Amino acid sequence: MPVRVAWGIQHPMSGHLTLYLDVDGDYVINTEPDVGYTHRGLEKTAEYRHFIQFVPIIERACNFDASNFALGYARAVEALMGVEVPERAKYLRVIAAELSRIMSHLYAQALLSMTGGFETMTVWSANDRELILDLLEMLTGARVTHTYIVPGGVRADLPEGFKGRSEEVLSYLERRIWDYYKMLFQNKTFQDRTMGVGVLSREEAIELGVTGPNLRASGVDFDTRRDDPYAAYDKLDFNVVVFKEGDSYTRALVRFYEIAESIKIIRQALKDLPEGPVKCKVPPALPKGEVYTRVETGRGELGIYLVGAGGNRPYRLKISAPSFRNLMGLIHLCRDVPMGDIPVIYYSFDILLLDVDR
Amino acid sequence: MELGRLIEEARAKLGSDLLEAGGVKPLLLRVKPERVVEAASLLKQRGFNHPLSVTGVDYPERKEIEVIYHVSRLEDKAVVALKVALSRDKPSLPSLRGVWPGVHLHERETWEMLGVRFEGHPELKRFLLQDDWEEGVYPLRRDYKLKPEV
User: Which of A12, A90, A109, B129 could be cross-linked to B133 through a Cys-Cys bond (beta carbons 3.0 to 4.6 Å apart)?
Assistant: First the structure.
């Protein structure tokens, strides 16, 4: 006879998520998520704000990957207005977005290793994330929510000494991630804990609308940066990391290799950085019309559906958040598994409840 | 497959119930609500199997609520927007969960926020709003006004 257990909301491993688990002994038979704990009504708020005022607000949809969310919003606004941003701004956007992605991936790695009791790795990742935060602070003036990417370009040009400092940090991180590899990914205990746990097949991943690193871990070769390019991604050379196993281990491994790819992208962007202005004028109002644009954030694809009605406020803004889509995959996998696998599957999906709830 | 051929095929299948077709990114198809399952099945047969989002937009002047399904095809990275306009007094359409299982939570959210009934959806219950939220009040409709902050 199954018993219903609430995993969360004050469970130390659950974040802001409540999962109602129907448990028989140590086995989870069925799972029902209860989200909404951090629901702030961002979509409604957008209808009450000038479109520029909304930039810092949309970053709160996903604190751990702020610049990518701002970039998604800026892309939608610019597409609606038909504005083309200056070349230099495109490259600076790539730099901010990729730093933000590394920050998000390191955080995901820290949390996943914590579930298995690999606290050394948690501290290492969190520590190295600080270096990225410092770089972002240097570039944007803020550590976590940057408000750097705005419709029309970026807020400020590259600060003095940024190229040198970033090269120091990136070459450190480039060596450092192989320590992660030895410490975590080659660790027998971690492999036993995550390999073959929570296997999502290619067909299931596509059908459920799973996105980002989780989709690529299931063998789907899709990355919005390459396949629907924005900013300067079409001029940069990088690989899309794809694995076919689809288990918790591979989901973590995709993120690991994406950190290496991000380092490569930032280096190229700094090297090829063109001269010129970093922002352009945008019209004062959103024209009538609607657009659907997408960008690749650290957690997956962010879709923005924006309807303009001639005023300076959006008529409707829909944030199709990556973690919301990944939640479908999580529910699907949290069935017929031992109770102890739930945190591993959850953190391997890198679901942030802030962007599920919005 | 070319998107142009897809439009022709949709027109052949749905006739005058295909109200609008065009655009590239995304390809827009507007159909009558009663034919939406057929249109979705056609899209799925043609490879559109990766659901991206479901959006509802309220238009009080036109007395309509529009529901838009964004679905992508991974082979050629095309995106299609399947749009239906519903009457604002009693918005309802058949659930597309049977065609695209991934829209399950998206449809639930649209029901909760805009009051669109998805017929045949097995689990239309509250999940983002708080439990004591008033019945029949839908925050993303235009006539729901936010209170001033001060």
Answer: B129
Nearest to A153 by CA among A237, A257, A55, A295: A55
| Residue A230: Cβ-neighbour burial (10 angstroms; 0-12, 13-18, 19+) | buried
- Return phi, psi of residue A210, to 5°: -65, 150
**Who's near A36: CB < 8 A, 6+ residues apart?**
A357, B127, B128, B129, B130
Among A50-54, A115-119, A288-292, B80-84, the range scoring the smallest mean pLDDT is A115-119
Q: With bands split at pLDDT 50, 70 and 90, how would you rate the model's confidence at A261? A: very high
Is pLDDT above 60 for A244? yes
> Does ipTM surpass 0.95 in this model?
no
Chain A residues whose beta carbon lies within 8 Å of the beta carbon of residue B51: 209
Portion 63-102 of B in contact with A at CB < 8 A: 68, 70, 74, 77, 79, 81, 100-102
The per-residue b/e assignment along A254-293, b for 16 or more CB within 10 angstroms, e otherwise, is bbbbbbbbbbbbbbbbbeebeeeebbeebeeebeeebbbb
Interchain contact, A209 vs B144, CB within 8 Å: no
Strand order in the sheet with A18-24: A3-7, A18-24, A27-34, A337-338
Domains of chain B, each with CATH number or no CATH: 3-90 (3.30.460.80)
Q: How far is CA A295 from CA A54, A69, A237, in A?
A: 18, 8, 17
Q: State the pLDDT at residue A69.
A: 92
Q: How many residues does chain A have?
A: 358
pLDDT tier at B150, thresholds 50, 70, 90: low
Pairing label, strands B117-119, B92-94: parallel
Task: Give the DSSP letter of residue B133.
Answer: P
Tell me if chain A has a CB within 8 Å of the CB of B130: yes
In this predicted structure, the answer to whether residue B1 has a pLDDT above a threshold of 60 is no
